[in-house]
């Protein structure tokens, strides 16, 4: 895999963690490794490469076994400059306003609603499809899947919305210190 293919700076490559079964970034010369892409990454090229080569399709989630009192959700996160950590695998420094993030999540929400309605619109996509390429959370590698979690494991606003969803249901827009979310309850 070349930097022309991945959008990563020279010397960097994408590898898969044996323990977490997730992709990470590795520099063969310096032996530096990280979960977030290094500075100088072309986010559009990386987004395309990750969607083509590291999506969750066919990956058996080992640590996704249900436990009493826990639910499983996926989400799509759009961060903004006032987010708790305004950086992601897509963008090393996020500068968009909270209003821009709300507009983006609104656009994604419309695409998800069109997908669920089965309208056949060309831009209709599932939350998982959109999360894989558009989410600012590292869970994008798994289609936004966060696995199972219980009460007290997530930020209050996120937890409240998630636990109020029926299986398969997608939330409205949820704002937390991390950014703006859409959440889908999987189990």
Arrangement of strands in the largest sheet? 5-4-7-6
Using the coordinates shown, work out and report the CATH topology of the largest domain. Answer: Chitinase A, domain 3
What is the strand tally? 7
| Domain unit count | 2
Percent in strands: 15-25%
* Helix-strand sequence: HEEEHEHHEHEE
Global Rg: 17 Å
Question: What's the shape?
Answer: globular
Please count the helical segments: 5
CATH class of the largest domain: Alpha Beta
> Helix coverage percent of residues?
25-40%
Structural class: alpha+beta
* CATH architectural label of the largest domain: Roll
**Unreliable residue stretches:** 57-63
* End-to-end C-alpha gap: 36 Å
> What is the arithmetic mean of pLDDT?
86
The major sheet is characterized as: 4 strands, antiparallel
GO molecular function: peptidyl-prolyl cis-trans isomerase activity
Catalytic activity: [protein]-peptidylproline (omega=180) = [protein]-peptidylproline (omega=0)
Pfam families: Rotamase (PF00639), WW (PF00397)
GO cellular component, one term: cytosol
Question: What are the key terms here?
Answer:
187 residues, single chain, 2 domains, 19% strand, Ubiquitin Ligase Nedd4, Chain: W, Chitinase A, domain 3, alpha+beta, 5 helices, four-stranded antiparallel β-sheet
């Amino acid at each position: 895999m070349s930097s022309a293919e991945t959008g990563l700076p020279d010397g960097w490559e994408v590898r898969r963690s044996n323990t977490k079964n997730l992709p990470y970034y590795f520099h063969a010369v310096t032996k530096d490794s990280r979960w977030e892409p290094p500075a100088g990454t072309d986010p559009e090229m990386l987004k395309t490469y990750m969607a083509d080569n590291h999506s969750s399709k066919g990956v058996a989630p080992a640590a996704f076994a249900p436990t009493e009192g826990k639910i499983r959700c996926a989400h799509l996160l759009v961060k903004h400059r006032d987010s708790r950590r305004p950086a992601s695998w897509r963008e090393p420094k996020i500068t968009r306003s909270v209003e821009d993030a709300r507009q983006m999540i609104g656009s994604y929400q419309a695409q998800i609603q069109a997908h669920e309605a089965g309208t056949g619109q060309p831009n209709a996509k599932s939350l998982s499809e959109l999360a894989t390429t558009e989410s600012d959370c590292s869970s994008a590698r798994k289609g936004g899947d966060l696995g199972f979690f219980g009460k007290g494991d997530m930020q209050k606003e996120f937890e409240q919305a998630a636990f109020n969803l029926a299986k398969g249901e997608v939330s409205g827009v949820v704002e937390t210190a991390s950014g703006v979310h859409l959440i889908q309850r999987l189990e």
